[in-house]
Amino acid sequence: MVRLLLIDANARMSGKRLTTLDVIGAGPRYVLSVLRRHGIDAVLEPYENVVTSKGLKDFDVLAVSFMISDVEAVRKLISWWKRRKPDGIVMLGGPGALSPNILEKLDFDLAIVGECELVVPEIVKKGVFEDRSRLDDLIGLKGVAVKLKGKVFWGGLAPWTPREVMEQYMPDTDSVAKYPFYWACRVYVEVVRGCSNFRRAKLYRECDLCNICRQGPLDARLRCPRNVAPGCGYCSVPSVHGPPRSRSIESIVSEVEKLLELGVTRIVLSAPDFLDYGRDLLVHPHPLTDPREPPPNIDVIEKLLSKLSALEPVLEGVACISIENVKPCLVNEYVAEVLGKYLKGTVVYIGLESGSDELLDRVGRPCSVSEAIRCIELLKKYGLRPYVYLMHGIPTETDDDVKKTVELVDLLEKIGVERIVLYRFRPLPFSAFEKAELPPPAIAKPSTRELYERVRKFNEARKRELLNRVIRAVIASSYPKKRGYVVAYPLLHGPTIVIRASRNYIGAVVDVKIVKVVSDRLVEGMLLRVRKRIVRIEKYARDISMR
What we know:
pyruvate-formate lyase- activating enzyme, 5-stranded mixed beta barrel, alpha/beta, 3 domains, globular
C-alpha cells in the first residue's frame, strides 16, 4: 500500500509560524479522510514536526497543504524531501496551489487545484502514486496541475463537491493531538463550504450591468455573461468553492464530540458566513447564490447550537464553541438573540472593509455600511463581541473612500467594537481582482497612513480596557522569553496572555486577572484559580516564539 505523508504548512511563511500560532485548520484533516477512504495509507503532520524528523524514507508520497504566503516554507520542505527520497512523488494542494505563478516556482509532480473529493479518486485510479510514469495520464484532468520536465500542464479548477459526496467523509480528529499545545488551540470545524454572494464587481468594461448576478434567478447567477468572477472582487471563495453546502448536524456534533474527548477546548465553527448554514436547504434544489434572501434558517442554526452547547465540557465552562464570520445583511434582532443565547461572550468577525458605500457596491459587497453598524449594535446588545475587518488598497479606492473609513473608526469605537483588523488588499487567483497590482503598505501613502494610525490607536485603547478584567484561559506552554512564565490563550478568544506560573499548569483551564498590557497582541496576567486540568502533559509542550 502507498504511504503518503500529508504536511500542514499553512501560515508557515518562510519556515516558521509568526502569527496565528493557536490555529488548527479544518482543510488538512478533511483531505486526510478523503485520501484514507480511497485506500491511501496517509499520515498528517504539522510542518514543525516533520522538519525535525528522520523517518521520511518510510513514505512514498509527500503531500503539502499551503497558502500563497508559504512558498519559501514549501520550497524548503520539498528540497529536504528530495534529498532523502529523490524518487518520491510531491503533491501540492490548498490555497497556494490555486496560483499558476506559484506552481511554476516549485519542484512538484502534481497539484490539486480546488476541492479534492472528486479529484482524489481519479488520481488513485490512474495509479500515479505507485508509478510516476503515469503522470501523463493526469494531463487535462479537471482540478489537477501536472509538472513534467519543468512545464506545468494546467487542468483548471476542480468541480464543486456535491453535498451528498461531502457527507461521505468525516474529518480526521486524532491528528489534532500532533500539533503543539493543541488543547489551547482554536480548532476549526467546517460547517458550511462555499459562499452565497454571487454578485460581481462592477469595475470592468467587460461588465455590461445586466444585473443578472443581483436580481436574476438563482441558477442564472452562477455564470456571468462577461466571465467576471463571482463574489466580492478581492475574494476567491465563490469561484473555488461555489455556493454554500451545509454539513449535517449529526456529522458536526460527532466531530466536535471527538475533539472535546481529545482535550480540545476552543472549537470554531468555520464558514465564510456562519449564517449561510442551512440557508441552502431553503432553496434546494437550486444553488444558494443570493447573499440576502432568504433570511437565515434560524431553526436549523438553533438546533445545531443547542446540541453543541449541551456537550459536557461546554456546560462546565472548560470548553468553548464559537463562530467566525457573519454577513451584516443577514443579522436581525431574532438572529442576534439566538446567537447571544448560545454564544454569549464569544467573538464574531464582521467584514466591513470600507466606510464608503460607493466602494462596497463597486467591488460587489452585498451589505451597506449602515447594515454593518446595525449588525454590530445587535450583536453587542445580545452579549457577543464584534471584531471588524477593514481593508486598504482595494482597486478603485480613492482618498475620499479612505477618509470615510477613517471617520467610521470613530463610530466603531462609540458602539463598542472590541478590535479592528486592518488588511492590505492582495490579488488572489480566481477572484475578480486577480490581475490587480499589490498596493503599497498603508504607511506609504498619507491617506492610508492616517487610517493605519487611527486603527492602531483604537486597538491600543481597547487593550487598556482589559486591565483588571478576569479572563478564563487555557495554558499552552512555557514562555521562552521570560523564565518562570507560561503562555495562555483566552477560552473565548482575545490577546495572548503571559502568566508567572509553574510549568505544571500547562494543560489547565484557569482564571486570570489582566495586570499589564505588553503590546498590541500580548498582555500579562495573574493566576487566580485553576478550573480544570484538560490534559496531563508528561513531556512539556514546545516553547513558542512570541512576536
